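Bumping my old thread because nobody answered last time. Still need a sequence for this structure:
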């Protein structure tokens, strides 16, 4: 691939990413835009002519649109099954992120799931079984209170506890990875009690594989 063609491919991808972040539209449309651009770039790399680029763009748009549509449907089902639980579902266009606040899912400083909350994670597992074309990362997070070692261990154990429920509820173990991030990925300031409460969480990150 020539340098000029490489620059053209990079520019096309950058333009599509910009459009996805600035233009209104559904997640399905976003997936189609990203898929079309990625396919077109692949066509440039593989064949380099207009026909290869067009074919790559068309195929990519179809695949990206299907993935976006699937994520939209999966998000709606998750929100329905988790309604009133305190969990939230974010659709990034490429992934679904289920946020489980630690305050409602674990006792303070404990990695034991509250028994009354387990059924909500089982509901997530049923959703994952209904939508099998994805991998799952379960990521534990803490605030910055206490030592790094303590928070790393706590985040590991909480992630593992949620992952175990998913697996014991039928999700194949090969789809699920449990990771602890300690306090290194905050979503709010650790300088306030409210911010620390938001940072104490477990995220279930669902990534399509098709």
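Sorry it took so long. Here it is:
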């Amino acid at each position: 691939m020539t340098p000029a063609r490489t620059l053209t491919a990079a520019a096309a991808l950058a333009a599509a990413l910009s459009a996805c972040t600035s233009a209104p539209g559904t997640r399905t449309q976003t997936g189609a835009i990203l898929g079309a651009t990625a396919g077109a770039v692949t066509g440039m790399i593989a064949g380099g002519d207009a026909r290869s680029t067009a074919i790559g763009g068309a195929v990519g748009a179809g695949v990206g649109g299907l993935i976006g549509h699937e994520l939209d449907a999966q998000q709606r089902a998750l929100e329905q099954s988790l309604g009133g639980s305190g969990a939230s579902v974010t659709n990034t266009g490429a992934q679904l992120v289920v946020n489980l606040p630690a305050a409602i899912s674990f006792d303070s400083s404990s990695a034991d799931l509250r028994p009354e909350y387990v059924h909500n994670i089982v509901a997530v597992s049923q959703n994952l079984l209904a939508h099998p074309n994805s991998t799952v990362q379960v990521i534990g997070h803490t605030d910055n209170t206490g030592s790094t070692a303590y928070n790393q261990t706590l985040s590991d154990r909480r992630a593992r506890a949620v992952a175990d429920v998913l697996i014991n509820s039928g999700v194949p173990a090969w789809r699920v990875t449990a990771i602890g991030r300690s306090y290194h990925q905050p979503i709010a300031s650790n300088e306030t009690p409210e911010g620390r409460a938001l940072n104490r969480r477990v995220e279930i990150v669902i990534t399509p594989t098709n």
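The longest strand covers residues 134-141. Let me know if any region looks off to you.
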